């Protein structure tokens, strides 16, 4: 007999009109503010009195957008927290909820290229437009800020290009968990998959580690953190499989010690990671995944998804 499902009626916050309006507000309105700010900079360079009014209005506009975004984000966080409190801890993390975990370091190229264009554009405007119109002291400041902005833009560009090259060679790595979550004192099983066909001579090496992050506050009020490795398993060699497709699959199974803490915690925070690597011509393959490892009783072991 099937279990009855609880049907939740969508409210105003879940309607398409609300979603489209919110997306427009969070994307278009900040762009309008940035446009007004840029126009104010141009008017300032031209020496017109309208410049300060435009800059002041643009700053107020951007502050309002930031405040609205912060309030909305806090409301969503609170709602997510209330929903998550009713679920097991390994289902409270969105990146774990379906048992498929993307490799750490998977980047959003749109955001990276946007950040690169923003810093580079600010640097070019300061160096090419603003600096020539200022006195000697102002020119020095504009040159410093513009140089730093261009440097940051160049670093982000190089990092994004390296990520793009690695993504083109290997694609996105995803870990499909076989034991979800992995039990303390049990066994972590899974398959790492990526959409490129490679067969390294030495096979793939896979390792499980356990780390604790301790957060501290100095007498001056500055926050700091220190990471301590509690346990590092030995590398195990796994042969990849292809199943007649262009995908590479790396199946593995690693014992989990029974005397180590489970994932999570407030302070310290315990994190378990699976790492995979392989030596290849050119760029080597490597990936890293944070995985859920928890104490499990017999009832949970019988009912968990595998």
Structure write-up:
- By secondary structure, this protein is of the alpha+beta class.
- Helix content is 42%, strand content 23%.
- It is built from five helices and eleven strands; from the N terminus they run ααβααββββββββββα.
- Strand 5 (204-217) and strand 6 form a beta hairpin.
List the keywords:
306 residues; alpha+beta; Immunoglobulin-like; 5-stranded antiparallel β-sheet; 4-stranded antiparallel β-sheet; 11 strands; elongated; disordered N terminus
Main pleated sheet: 5 strands, antiparallel
What is the terminal-to-terminal distance? 22 Å
Mass-distribution shape: elongated
Q: Given the helix and strand composition, which structural class is it?
A: alpha+beta
Any idea how many domains?
A: 3
CATH architecture of the largest domain: Sandwich
Q: Averaged pLDDT, please?
A: 79
Give start-end ranges of low-pLDDT stretches.
1-15
**CATH fold name of the largest domain, please?**
Immunoglobulin-like
What string, H for helix and E for strand, traces the elements in order? HHEHHEEEEEEEEEEH
């Amino acid at each position: 007999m099937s279990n009855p499902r609880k049907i939740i009626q969508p409210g105003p916050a879940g309607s398409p009109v609300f979603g489209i309006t919110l997306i427009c507000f969070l994307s278009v309105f900040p762009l309008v503010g940035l446009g007004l700010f840029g126009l104010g900079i141009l008017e300032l360079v031209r020496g017109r009195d309208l410049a300060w009014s435009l800059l002041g209005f643009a700053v107020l506009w951007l502050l309002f957008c930031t405040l609205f975004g912060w309030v909305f984000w806090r409301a969503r966080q609170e709602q997510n927290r209330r929903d998550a409190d009713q679920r097991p801890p390994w289902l409270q993390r969105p990146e774990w909820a379906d048992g498929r975990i993307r490799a750490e370091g998977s980047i959003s190229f749109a955001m990276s290229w946007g950040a690169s264009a923003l810093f580079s554009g600010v640097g070019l405007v300061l160096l090419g437009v603003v600096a020539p119109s200022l006195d000697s002291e102002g020119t020095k400041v504009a040159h410093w800020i513009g140089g730093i902005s261009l440097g940051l833009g160049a670093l982000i560009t190089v990092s994004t290009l390296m990520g793009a090259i690695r993504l083109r060679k290997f694609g996105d790595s995803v870990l499909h968990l076989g034991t979800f979550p992995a039990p303390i004192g049990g066994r972590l099983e899974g398959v790492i998959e990526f959409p490129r066909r490679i067969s390294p001579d030495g096979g793939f090496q896979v390792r499980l580690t356990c780390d604790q992050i301790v957060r501290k506050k100095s007498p001056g009020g500055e926050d700091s953190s220190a990471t301590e490795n509690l346990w590092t398993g030995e590398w195990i060699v796994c042969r990849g499989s292809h199943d007649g497709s262009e995908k590479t699959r790396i199946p593995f199974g690693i014992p989990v010690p029974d005397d180590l803490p489970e994932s999570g915690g407030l302070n310290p925070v315990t994190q378990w990671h699976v790492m995979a690597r392989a030596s290849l011509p050119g760029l080597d393959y490597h990936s890293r995944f944070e995985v859920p490892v928890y104490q499990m009783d017999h009832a949970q072991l019988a009912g968990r998804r595998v």
